[in-house]
Amino acid sequence: xxxxxxxxxxxxxxxxxxxxxxxxxxxxxxxxxxNLLHLPQQMGGLEILAHPAVLIAAGVACVxxxxxxxxxxxxSIWDAVHTFIRPIGAGLLGAAALANSMDPAARTVLAILCGxxxxxxxxxxxxxxxxxxxxxxxxxxxxxxxxGDVAVPAGxxxxxxxxILMFVIVxxxxxxxxxxxxxIVRKLRSVFARIGLTQRAxxx
Length: 204
Fold this sequence. Notes:
The protein has helices spanning 3-19, 21-33, 52-68, 74-81, 85-97, 104-132, 139-161, 163-203. The chain is mainly α.
């Protein structure tokens, strides 16, 4: 497995973890346990995710996240709480994946990159959902949430089977996040301003 392929797989899994950490861990663990996924030799460290204790913990957290992500505004609270959890989890995921194939220094650098990628995907997802939450109908929110649920197993398959393609997808996602950052910030400011006006009107 070449360096670019290794980066594609690890950064791709981290990008997914930034949106759905627990679902990513659970899907990889179940895939490995039931031989649905075949990990590259360099990423053999991810076999630890198939341990029953990890599967149970990830399963419980995944159910909680699945439900929370379908409730408007509560999903934003959940995202806020996970602003640090998801990047840290993604960094640990990357470090664990390469525990047997990289020296500690290189593994640490890659773990930091994984955390940064996860933070970017998490921030984009959280900001998008906060903007969508201003819509009075719940269908767009639930639709985006279900799309995120489907993206995890599909993304894992792409990351492990077509790592170069996943590397391109991650790069496009990072560039898009950078280009949309100013628009997202403006939208969030208008959302918070609208909430503040609503609260002041209700207390007047």
